[in-house]
Design goal:
It is a single chain. The chain is of the alpha/beta class. The protein has four domains: 284 residues, no CATH class; 174 residues, Class I glutamine amidotransferase (GATase) domain (Rossmann fold), CATH 3.40.50; 56 residues, no CATH class; 80 residues. Helices cover 27% and strands 23% of the residues. The strands form nine sheets. Strands 1-2-3-6-8-10-13-14 form an eight-stranded parallel barrel. The chain has a six-stranded mixed β-sheet with strand order 18-17-19-20-22-21, sandwiched between helices. It has a five-stranded antiparallel β-sheet with strand order 23-24-27-25-26. A hairpin with a 2-residue loop joins strand 23 and strand 24. Helix 9 packs parallel to helix 10 and helix 14 packs across helix 15. The longest helix is centred in the first third of the chain and has 32 residues.
Length: 758
């Protein structure tokens, strides 16, 4: 995870809307269509080569380019040591400390060590300057129409991943880290910018892939689609080759190397106009899992609702995590969820804290995911200087109250259980997504705009804001029964994406025949409907991709707005693009009414209920979010014997009101096993617990210069509380109603010894 140069810039590239006449290029395309279709079917399909990942004991992890230091010892299960040459954004460059020395420094402190590096950028200057093979390779950067290379840092371009570069990655990175004993490799962010595609390296890859000369993507929708498909393929190939080599080389040394892809969500990449393989990576047997890179920086990207563009961090994060879960859930691959207590862009500590709570809450509302990257770059979190408030230029390290709260939160993740419970609200409504969401984002053609991915958010926000926990489903996963197993009503549109394989429509038609309900929103008049694809070639002659689906269900091509029956199911066609539901005030009224009617009367899935909140009971934890711009301004009340985990003082209360725009995170002591002494919540991690008839002891470890606090469940009031041998018992810290003692001290990564007697 790292910063994206120019993300916040509004790109106004003025391209001619003059289209290349499709007929002029069809002859060449037809000649190579069969070859291309075979390849695309391969990368789009998910129905084969799925391996069951081996179980491991890594529940929490983090990434850092630094050696171990007492200030960043956050006590996760594992550390992903970043880059053979470090992290381009880390100006210290580790001051001569080798990769192997960094690894050893963490191993010596008891961490499982893994490896992370970028596949699209990194400290690879020796490749670009010719040090590796005697040839300059700066022409392999991603280049815009203006001839500008897109840089991630000084001499760190975003890469067109050539075969030669992949050879370099195998030799200089993968081999070295495996030789260092690393058996888990994380290749992050396979990213090709949509605005790129003009370098000589890309032109060479185009000719190799398609068999005909490169065509500028800004000249036609056809060219844009072809360009983005190639970008998609290049990073699919890159990860396949590098990971396959890693597994084979590891096997030669008697090691079972696991390979993971940390990647932004399909929602974010589509919104930020980046192309990446995303769901198709699950077809690779060499991919063992993913990290869902969701954080404030991705989730604060503005979107439209009720006619207003604004940051909606919780809602966006919820959809981002959801798209990652649905992408992988049917495959059984391991998934880590990431949150970041700060973000790449400099803000103030108040802003960081508020939005961290929002993204953290969103991730916990997915009860089937219980593995986490607890933070990236602890060096910038614990040691970085940021503004103390939005109105101040004074910069300071992380405030004690925030670092304490943060550590309480991340330590809770070490014990976070999976749960069969569901988030509160009407269930069974899903939005169909496809990897091709990334293909239509840039540049625009024929004046067709999809501002801030409004065609996606137009289907999601009207329901989410009314307290409906809408899910996503990936078209690439439809061959798995699990993909739509819990969906009663499926929302879909081809205004912003296209199906890469006709097989998906067969699965959809069969699902409807058995009783499913589809609500299709779309005018089907966007310029990408006419790109040469399977629906208008190879014997097909459909004006729009949706017509193929409709015909399978006995609905005529270009069918008018209306309701259609197929088997036991229903198809409702709304001849509006989904963006229209959110770009105008109250534009979603008819859409929401339609969803409710079909859910209740056709799907017969129950009564739709509206509310302004989401709540989940997950083991002993209560997780709640209350939204603004919703159906009411009422707070949500949580009741029980509660420890407030968003409060660094860990108070106990009987109830708490969560107001609109706020989140809540509580541990209910009533749902904890009684009579067993235990640390219920803490800003440190415990080791070496021992229990006897009237005594409880442990060692606490956490970073230096942070505050240790814990609420400890005991069978009786303590008579003695020893911290490093000194009695610190204070009767005021005993809460008889909850049978808990509040303990505090200064943290130490070397360990603080605690013994409690009663």
């Amino acid at each position: 995870m790292n910063d994206k140069p120019g993300i916040k810039l509004i790109i106004h590239l003025l391209f001619s809307n003059k289209r290349t006449v499709l007929e002029n290029c069809r002859e060449n395309l037809e000649n190579h269509f069969n070859m291309r279709r075979t390849l695309l079917t391969f990368i789009a399909g998910l129905g084969f080569c799925i391996l069951t990942p081996a179980q491991d004991n890594i529940k929490t992890t983090f990434q850092t380019s630094r050696e171990w230091r007492p200030t960043i010892d956050n006590r996760a299960d594992a550390v992903m040591v970043y880059g053979v040459g470090g992290n381009p954004s880390d100006k210290s460059r580790n001051k001569g400390i080798t990769f192997e020395e960094r690894v050893k420094s963490w191993r010596d402190r008891g961490y499982t060590t893994h490896f992370m590096t970028g596949i699209a950028w990194g400290e690879y200057q020796d490749y670009f300057t010719g040090e590796w093979d005697g040839k300059m390779h700066l022409d392999e950067g991603q280049v815009t129409a203006q001839g500008d290379t897109i840089w991630h840092g000084h001499m760190v371009p975003y890469i067109v991943p050539s075969e030669n570069f992949l050879k370099y990655m195998k030799e200089r990175s993968v081999k070295r880290v495996i030789d260092a004993g690393i058996d888990a490799i994380f290749m992050e962010e396979p990213e090709f910018w949509a605005r790129a595609g003009y370098s000589e390296a890309f032109k060479r890859e185009w000719k190799e892939y398609y068999g005909f000369d490169w065509k500028p993507q800004h000249e036609s929708p056809e060219n844009t689609y072809l360009s983005n498909k190639l970008k998609y393929h290049l990073y699919y190939r890159a990860l396949n080759e590098v990971f396959t080599y890693a597994k084979e080389y590891g096997k030669s040394k008697g090691m079972d190397v696991k390979c993971y892809v940390p990647t932004h969500s399909l929602v974010n990449y589509s919104q930020w106009q980046i192309v990446s393989p995303e769901a198709s990576l699950a077809s690779l047997p060499c991919v063992d899992g993913y990290i869902a890179q969701v954080w404030t920086g991705t989730s604060r990207e503005p979107n439209y609702y009720n006619g207003k563009a604004a940051e909606r961090v919780f809602e966006t994060a919820y959809l981002e995590y959801g798209s990652m879960e649905s992408m992988t859930a049917p495959t059984g691959r391991k998934m880590f969820f990431l949150t970041d207590p700060i973000e790449d862009w400099p803000r103030d500590w108040v802003d960081y804290k508020r939005n961290y709570e929002a993204t953290f809450t969103a991730q916990l509302l997915y009860p089937n995911i219980a593995d986490y990257e607890i933070m990236p770059w602890p060096e910038r979190i614990y040691e970085g200087l940021y503004r103390v408030s939005k109105d101040s230029e004074v910069k300071a390290r992380i405030p004690r109250h925030y670092s304490t709260q943060m550590q309480i939160m991340i330590n809770s993740l070490n014990n976070m259980p999976k749960s069969a419970n569901k988030v509160s609200g009407t269930s069974g409504i899903s939005i169909l997504m496809a990897n091709s969401l990334m293909f239509q984002r840039f540049p625009t053609h024929e004046g067709y705009e999809d501002p801030q991915l409004a065609n996606f958010y137009g289907q999601a926000m009207p329901l989410l804001k009314r307290g409906i926990p809408v899910k996503t489903a990936h078209i690439e996963n439809l061959q798995y029964k699990e993909a739509l197993a819990h969906t009663d009503v499926l929302l879909m549109s081809y205004s912003n994406m296209k199906p890469l394989d006709p097989k998906a429509h067969e699965y959809l038609a069969e699902w409807v025949r058995k009783g499913g309900v589809i609500i299709y929103s779309g005018r089907d008049d966007d310029p990408f409907q006419s790109v040469m694809e399977w629906w208008n070639s190879e014997g097909n002659d459909y004006a729009a991709a949706s017509d193929h689906l409709f015909n399978l269900m006995g609905i005529e091509s270009g069918a008018a707005d209306g309701t259609y029956k197929y088997g036991k199911g229903t198809v409702r066609i709304i001849r509006q693009d989904p963006k229209e539901y959110v770009l105008a005030e109250n534009g979603d009224k008819n859409f929401v009414e339609t969803v409710c009617s079909l859910y209740e009367n056709n799907a017969k899935a129950g009564k739709v209920t509206f509310k302004n909140n989401f709540y989940l009971e997950r083991g002993p934890y209560d997780i709640v979010s209350v939204m603004t711009e919703s159906v009411s301004d009422q707070p949500y009340t949580v009741s029980g014997t509660l420890i407030n985990l968003f409060d660094p003082e860990l108070p106990v209360c009987k109830s708490a009101d969560i107001k609109p725009g706020e989140r809540g995170y509580f541990l209910d002591i009533a749902r904890v096993r009684k009579g067993k002494p235990q640390v219920l919540a803490s800003s440190f991690r415990t080791y070496g617990e021992t229990k006897s008839g009237h005594s409880y002891s442990f060692t606490a470890k956490s970073p230096v210069q942070t505050s240790g606090i814990a609420r400890i469940l005991l069978p009786a009031a303590p008579s003695e509380v020893l911290v490093n041998g000194t009695d610190v018992f204070d009767a005021k810290n005993w809460d008889s109603l909850s049978s808990t003692y509040l303990l505090s001290f200064e943290n130490d990564p070397e360990g603080v010894s605690v013994t409690i007697n009663w």
